[in-house]
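Two folds, back to back.
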Amino acid sequence: MPLLELNNLSVNYGAVQAVRDISLTVEAGEIVTLIGANGAGKTTTLRAISRMMKPRSGTLSFDGHDLLAVSADVVVRYGVAHSPEGRQVLARQSVADNLELGAFIRRDSAQIQADIRRMYERFPRLGERRGQLAGTLSGGEQQMLAIARALMSRPKLLLLDEPSLGLAPIIVLEIFGIIKELNAQGVTILLVEQNARLAMQSSHRTYVMEAGQITFSGPSAELANDERVLHAYLGG
């Protein structure tokens, strides 16, 4: 059974049908990437999975649980964490406060503090700036904080929405190095990413969305050589 499974999922954004009858799966241990042009429905798909948006129809299951039957906080308790587009750190709170808030579902205070220390080891710049207001961090540091905050819930599945957005190329490579390292340590990842080439190089499988629908999918290494993908997304 897949860890995450969407079947014929449709989502409206007001009067607009943003996602149309999509089906996708994510197996435990994978990095799966979702690529497509702006407005294709990628962010809406992630927001539906984390229950920040209510699907109109279809089914959505995670680790044997029906996600359509529960609220967003329960989705986190089941093991899904969402690092949103634009990072959305709490700008007027410190780095340390952001991390503690990422563990809002937990009650194991000693382990929460141990995990915060581990985040500082994994992201040394956050450790150096633990008392600094999150809004004063650089874009790359805010992205690291957004990922670290999501990890504080100890997720089985991490949803990453445009982690490279607005970052310098050298920082993008650093962020993707972190993504691959997290996956090697056992975190399953569903990645929405504008840098299609880098996303496909870093993932096991790829789904391509166009106008709210999945048009084709397959192993990332194969789709990276597909003429349709080359011309539409990779500049080939």
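---
second:
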Amino acid sequence: MMKPRVLVVQTGGTFAMVKRAASGTDSGTLSLGAEPIDLVQQVPALASIAEIEPLPLFQLDSADMQPSHWATLARAVHAALARAELSGVVVIHGTDTMAYTASALAFMLGPLPHPVVLTGAQRPLSDVRTDARANLVDAVLAATLPVPEVMVAFGSRVMRGCRTAKVDAWAFDAFGSPGLPPLVELGLGVAVAAHVRPAGALQALDDRLETRVIAVRVFPGLDPRLVRAALRIGIRGLVLEAYGTGNLPNLADGSLIPAIVEATSRGIAVLVVSQCTRGHVELRRYEGGSAAADAGAIDGGDMTVEAAVAKLMVALGRYERLEDVRRFLLADVAGERSPSS
């Protein structure tokens, strides 16, 4: 039996970094090398899982990843998925913005015939005590499974990409998916969950993105004038990270409702998500949220902030009319929001 073939796209990240020599009390600073890694040479176990086809694309700290990189990556992944001989795609990516990239890919690519698995590491592959090898092996294995979604493989779990968030800066178990159980769990065996989305025919790629989007975390003392000033400098979308189920300040000088009214009048989409890692937005539950809904705010359900930002960029890139943007944001496009939310 022929082994499956997996494309492994390298974009940099901690996975590919090396530590510069320490000086004084400095323990050393991580930085990217000049050349991509020979993955099969460094992780020979990969060859027992699949035929590995490497594709060096970027050498970036993921803090420098921008929507233009998402579009380039989406084009490379889309082209790979159109090839019948490939079983799946793995993307090695820095952890800091991996959830944003995974979400953007999910919305840009649409239904998938094969898996797309992002992974990375908390410590470089060059370290003796690293999580890079195990994460890469898990990702390549996941790319051969009948799980046709954009996913994040980390810490022996494979999670829906547009449901993930980086939840720990230090632990090897760095990613969580609080709103949805993993799609695959890798222990002594391989357990594929029942809620995997079905495969779909690859669609034409639409990689348009509108980057004039900001996200604002609501907090006591937030001056609404700052939000209203942002509306007047050309933004097209605003993500509000609200309290609890979407509650917002609604009294006197602290009210954000006039800002939402102004945004709607200017054709600016306002998407409300929760600051909480569990639960979902229900704008009609409290007066502040209900007033926001009446002013034109869009209910983000249980979307993560990362998914909300990426989805808003995709929606605004594709649609001019606010009602079309609203319709796209309220739809469950890639499993990013639960049907009941």
